[in-house]
Specification:
Largest sheet: 6 strands, antiparallel
Structural class: alpha+beta
Order of helices and strands: EEHEEEEHEE
CATH superfamily: PDZ domain
CATH architecture: Roll
Radius of gyration: 17 Å
Shape: elongated
CATH class: Mainly Beta
Helix content: 10-25%
Number of strands: 8
Number of domains: 1
Distance between the termini: 37 Å
CATH topology: Pdz3 Domain
């Protein structure tokens, strides 16, 4: 959904159901910039392919890593959209962009050509195989 869209959100508070009407906003530019720079920083000596995903930790200690932006030229651009949550990579839970980067680097170092990510989106939870290049 795009920023400015009004949505209805059902909640349960104190055992009573209620419906709130919310207007969606935009992620602050400084947070997007920080997430983008974190995603690009690779450990020394490791060539990590550009997946084209800007990532940020989940809010309020939630599980996984949130995809905040998708570069249409990235290798994973057709498999993700903003708002998707990466829960684990190759069976290992992730909670920061650095965890995702490390899992991809480790797989590449092990000679793997892809990684398997468990991703939660509006359509439910699914597994996505993401190409990381030739080993």
């Amino acid at each position: 959904m795009t920023p400015g869209t009004s949505i209805k959100l059902g909640i349960v508070r104190g055992g009573k159901e209620d419906t709130l009407t919310l207007t969606l906003g935009e992620l602050p530019k400084e947070r997007q910039a920080r997430a983008s720079s974190e995603e690009r920083t690779a450990p020394p000596g490791v060539d990590v392919p550009k997946l084209g995903l800007s990532l940020a930790p989940a809010r309020n200690g939630g599980e996984g890593v949130v995809v905040t932006q998708v570069d249409p030229n990235g290798t994973a651009s057709d498999q993700f959209q903003s708002g998707d949550v990466i829960l684990d990579v190759n069976g290992k839970a992730v909670s920061s962009p650095a965890d995702v980067r490390k899992a991809v680097s480790d797989a590449q170092s092990d000679g793997k050509r892809s990684v398997l990510m468990r991703v939660k989106s509006n359509q439910g939870t699914r597994f996505v195989a993401v190409a990381i290049g030739n080993a």
